């Protein structure tokens, strides 16, 4: 919202929701293309295009997942730091230290949870932790916004009583409690706006729809569509609520991590930050699982999860993967920039460009001339948006890298 303002932010969120539902519905309708179920996105791509497309899609997916995991570790580290500053103001512990601790926690969790099937009970905890963050963030932001409005109204009333109406009104207008102007110079605003567009599509898409819906019951396509309709209507409401409330309360000062802005009882903020941290650890494991699954299959890891060979493999491989992820997170802890870059280099191609082109190729004999032009228009449009967003995201990372040192304490 900060790089877009009220109008751009609201319109952008609604557009991102709509086009994400549209693009994912194209993939869902190809789930049984050719008379067989495609439970991996790369399987569907390979079936339509061939082996090279399979490898390209695989690479984009894992680049996407790696960037998502980088973002999760930055978020987890930010949550831990937020807990620390609630009780200490010495600033001895920097963000990179907390990112390292978050990476360690994610590594221990990944080693202890060998398969996604062992994650079932943790998904309930993840939902609970998410609700805690949403409820606390929304409630405290609402309280802060209400206090700011009440304070402004009180000052306005007081000035109306003590001085002339014109003078009182001018003072009230010139001292607004929040600033909703888009920050930065004109050129900077252009790049941040483009980057924000990539952030919006990243927020709604993973590039893993077939994998997520792999166990859905028949009729498969109809049930996938029901799930998508629910996700992009009811499912987006909590995100809308927190986003709009946070921006209303804090304006252009809104942090990428909302709990850094809110005011309230220390124990409530501590509980919310710890919940955000724990939810991030669980969510990261879900998005890292395709990588773990591939490596387990590639190296023939079978049998008991507690077998010495299997346990050693998880410690070495999963621990090594998360160590690299944590290092990248600590080197460049710019959460918003990484979200923009991820949206540009992987989410746009996977979710929008590839989905439209696959549908065009798969259904070419059933489409009219105008329909074919429509899908080509989408391919070209989203291709241009992807390129522009990548340039904008890289520029933001370079600018922030020159402003801050590596291992910056943000």
TrEMBL record:
Species of origin = Salvia splendens
Keywords in alphabetical order, please: Amino-acid transport, Membrane, Transmembrane, Transmembrane helix, Transport
Q: What is its main location?
A: membrane
Query: This protein's superkingdom?
Result: Eukaryota
The name under which this protein is listed is Amino acid transporter transmembrane domain-containing protein
Q: What residue intervals traverse the membrane?
A: 6-32, 95-114, 121-139, 227-250, 270-295, 315-335, 341-362, 374-398
Which BP terms does GO give this entry? amino acid transport
Instruction: Cite the Amino acid transporter transmembrane domain residue spans from the record.
Output: 1-394
Any keyword Transmembrane helix?
yes
Keyword hit for Transmembrane = yes
InterPro entries according to UniProt: AA_transpt_TM
Would you name any one GO CC term? membrane
Where is it localised? Membrane
């Amino acid at each position: 919202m900060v790089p877009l303002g009220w109008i751009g932010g609201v319109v952008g969120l609604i557009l991102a929701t709509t086009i994400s539902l549209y693009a994912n519905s194209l993939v869902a309708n190809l789930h049984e293309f050719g008379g067989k179920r495609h439970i991996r996105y790369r399987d569907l791509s390979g079936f339509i295009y061939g082996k090279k497309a399979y490898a390209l899609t695989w690479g984009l997916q894992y680049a996407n997942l790696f960037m998502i995991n980088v973002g999760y570790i930055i978020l987890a580290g930010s949550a831990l730091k937020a807990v620390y500053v609630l009780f200490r103001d010495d600033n001895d512990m920097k963000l990179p230290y907390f990112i390292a601790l978050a990476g360690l926690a994610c590594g221990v969790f990944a080693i202890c949870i060998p398969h996604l099937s062992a994650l079932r009970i943790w998904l309930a905890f993840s939902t609970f932790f998410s609700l805690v963050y949403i409820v606390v963030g929304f409630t405290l932001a609402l309280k802060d916004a209400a206090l700011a409005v009440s304070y402004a109204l009180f000052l306005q009333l007081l000035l109306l009583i003590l001085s002339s109406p014109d003078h009182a009104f001018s003072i009230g207008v010139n001292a607004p409690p929040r600033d909703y102007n888009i920050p930065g110079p004109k050129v900077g605003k252009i790049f941040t706006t483009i980057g924000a567009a990539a952030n919006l599509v990243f927020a709604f898409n993973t590039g893993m729809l077939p994998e997520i819906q792999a166990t859905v019951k028949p009729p498969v396509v109809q049930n996938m569509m029901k799930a998508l309709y629910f996700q992009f209507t009811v499912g987006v409401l909590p995100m809308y609520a927190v986003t709009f409330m946070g921006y209303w309360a804090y304006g252009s000062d809104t942090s990428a991590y909302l709990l850094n802005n809110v005011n309230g009882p220390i124990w409530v903020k501590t509980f919310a930050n710890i919940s955000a941290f724990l939810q991030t650890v669980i969510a990261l494991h879900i998005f890292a699982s395709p990588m773990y699954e591939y490596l387990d299959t590639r190296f023939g890891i079978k049998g008991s999860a507690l077998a010495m060979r299997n346990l050693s493999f998880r410690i070495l491989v999963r621990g090594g993967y998360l160590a690299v992820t944590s290092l990248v997170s600590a080197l460049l802890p710019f959460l918003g920039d990484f979200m923009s870059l991820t949206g540009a280099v992987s989410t746009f191609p996977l979710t929008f460009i590839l989905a439209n082109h696959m549908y065009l190729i798969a259904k070419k004999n059933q489409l009219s001339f105008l329909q074919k032009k429509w899908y080509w228009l989408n391919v070209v449009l989203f291709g241009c948006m992807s390129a522009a967003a990548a340039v904008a995201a890289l520029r933001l990372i370079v600018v922030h890298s020159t402003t801050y040192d590596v291992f910056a304490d943000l």
